Amino acid sequence: MAANTAIVIVGASLAGAKAAQALREEAFDGPIMLLGEENEHPYERPPLSKGYLLGKDERDKVYVHPPQWYPEHDVDLRLGATVTAIAPAGHEVTLASGSRLGYAKLLLTTGSSPRRLPVPGADLDGVLYLRRLADSDRIKETFESASRVAVIGAGWIGLETAAAARAAGLQVTVLEASELPLLRVLGREVSQIFADLHTDHGVDLRAGVQVAEITGADGRVNGVLLADGTRIDADAVIVGVGITPNTGLAEAAGLEIDNGIRVDAQLRSSHPDIYAAGDVANAFHPLLGKHIRVEHWANALNQPKTAAQSMLGQDVNYDRIPYFFTDQYDLGMEYTGYVEPGGYDQVVFRGRTDTREFIAFWLAGGRVLAGMNVNVWDVTDPIRALVTAGHPVDPARLADPDVPLNDLLDRPGSTG
Fold first, then answer.
1. What global pTM score does this model have?
2. What DSSP line would sit under 291-327, residue for residue?
């Protein structure tokens, strides 16, 4: 009997769909099976808290490919197909139906799940999370009937949904445990800008608070009780307190788990024929010299090509610098780079923070670790180049809008 040449992808996500596409683009002509728990075709998540939630994008804009793309490219897409077990030694996955599928290579793009709020009342009707397309539909419907919404968690999802709720005309209260929104991600200097953005747009932002209970009547949410006894009235509560990588299958199969599925720069797990990409992958980054797990769209978009090439035996590394973006009210932002909480010693601003048209740079030892452009466009490439250059820059020149960013790429003292 001929050896199994099939590649099975568990997770019909953006990463899963892009991996199938990359395999065909790399001229792989063997069987591809793409397995997804949901009954939706693979879709992208950013619109769920941005354009689609705001009503600016039509539903069909969220899908990675048109439905006919999968049969046209001989990709066996199975929706509503839950994988219950992986047998690495036997090169098989088991489905909830009891059927088994053999594979030569296996790619896990199982993504993440929202963290649940561990307080009384968290299971009341009207307590909403945003991760799946159906969640975005529910929140859109809620915006049409509610007048007051409480958002628990001032991370990216919380702030984007707060902005969408304000755009829909709702009264919005944002509750955040830290003293500022996005404090761990952006640090104090930049977090304050996002706090001001939301208060300027009428959000009641309450930072440094603890949620004790979600209150309700007749099974339906009617407010939030804080630890200090304060009560917030709300017709709906949206919870955005982070996500957890879906590693259960991998862990049960004996793969190494460390804040996600631990993979090398080729996106190969501790088993040589099993790979991981997207939110669930804690990948070694050759430029940063450490393992990182990135929960953003660009990773799910770009990692699958490396995974596909690696599964096909090509000598490749995933070394793309992390990137993400947000749109809130009249603020558009792109962030390029990687900074761990407290991992910088200086923030340099180029432009005006008061009008929210600027670039912020995070530095350590004079080196640019990351840059964030706010309402300033077409600078992602030079920011990425500054991050990857890895040498110190002059902070005064970095802050000067009259000095082109590309001029900072030469080492200090270089004659060019």
1. 0.95
2. EE---SHHHHHHHHHHHHHHHTT------PPPEEEEE
Q: What's the full length of the chain, in residues?
A: 416
pLDDT above 50 for 252: yes
Does a structural domain hold residue 326?
A: no
Does residue 122 lie in a domain region? yes
Query: Would the pLDDT of 205 be above 80?
Result: yes
Per the CB < 8 A criterion, the answer to whether 115 and 241 are in contact is yes
- Give the H/E segment covering residue 171: strand 171-176
Q: Which residues contact 395 (CB under 8 A, 6 or more apart)?
A: 346, 348, 363, 366
Classify residue 224 by its DSSP letter.
E
Q: Please, are residues 364 and 389 in contact by the beta-carbon 8 Å criterion?
A: no
Q: Which domain holds residue 290?
A: 7-113+244-311
Q: Is the pLDDT of residue 316 over 70?
A: yes
C-alpha pair distances (Å), 403 with each of 352, 374, 411: 15, 18, 15
| Strand ranges, E, within 211-263 | 211-217, 220-226, 231-233, 236-239, 243-245, 261-263
Helix (H, G, I), strand (E, B) or coil at 85: strand
